[in-house]
Design brief:
40% of the residues lie in helices and 14% in strands. It is of the alpha/beta class.
Length: 238
């Protein structure tokens, strides 16, 4: 039997629900499927977290247990929320819940860690952060780092990059250095014709496009490539 490999990016509630459902349906249909979930954050031990208020409201308990066959984690509940108060300029409106329909508050990081353990128990491969083939870097951090390397500014990153981020930024700069000719041709007359190496390329790009997001938009729209590499782009059939 041929095995289908599926990769899901993101181990939040949406990713884990998708992985769990796919694994269950494949078993019911007798299809061989290998599901891998990529999550760049380490929720266990609260090393990372997703910013969220962490309210678990109906019908979530029923959805988890009936649709995903995952026991609802009542043990993670910290408080019961029986109603809300809507504050306006002139009055306060009490929004009370029906009996048995109260919400539960929890730490979001604990719920994410619980869901990841549940999909692991169902045979889904969850790659830990140190095994991921990519690292996300915020555009403003990359831009500031490149500005320092090109001599546009002398002040380093604040806060300074840790070991992993510093390595990613160094690899990004090396990738940019290998694309001087490609990017010079792509931007054409928008950048200086005297560009010969990576520092002068970056300085010219900053003068013409101002920011990393604008560079990425230009390359995607006009050349279907990216700043640090060429990627295949989907295009609707004519």
């Amino acid at each position: 039997m041929k095995t289908t490999r599926v990769v899901i990016i993101g181990g939040g509630p949406g990713g884990t629900a998708c992985a769990s459902t796919l694994q269950r349906l494949a078993g019911e249909l007798d299809h061989a499927v290998h599901v891998t979930l990529l999550e760049g954050k380490q929720f266990s031990g609260e090393q990372h977290y997703n910013q969220c208020v962490g309210v678990l409201s109906p019908p979530l308990p029923a959805l988890l247990e009936e649709r995903l066959c995952v026991p609802f984690p009542y043990h993670l509940a910290r408080n019961q929320i029986k109603g809300y108060v809507l504050h306006t300029l002139r009055e306060e409106i009490a929004l009370e819940t029906d009996e048995g329909s109260a919400s539960l508050s929890s730490r979001r990081v604990h719920f994410d860690a619980y869901m990841l353990e549940q999909v692991r128990a169902r045979g889904v491969s969850v790659l830990p952060p140190h095994r991921l083939p990519y690292r996300a870097i915020r555009a403003e951090r990359l831009q500031a780092d490149f500005d320092c390397r090109a001599g546009i500014q002398t002040q380093g990153l604040d806060p300074p990059p840790r070991v992993v981020e510093a390595g990613c930024l160094q690899r990004a700069w090396s990738a940019l250095a290998a694309r001087v000719k490609t990017l010079k041709e792509a931007f054409g007359q928008l950048i200086s014709s005297t560009v010969a190496e990576v520092a002068s390329l970056w300085a010219s790009l900053r003068r013409s496009s101002d920011s990393v997001p604008k560079m990425l938009c230009f390359l995607s729209e006009h050349h279907r490539i990216s700043l640090l590499g060429n990627y295949l782009c989907l295009q609707a059939p004519p």
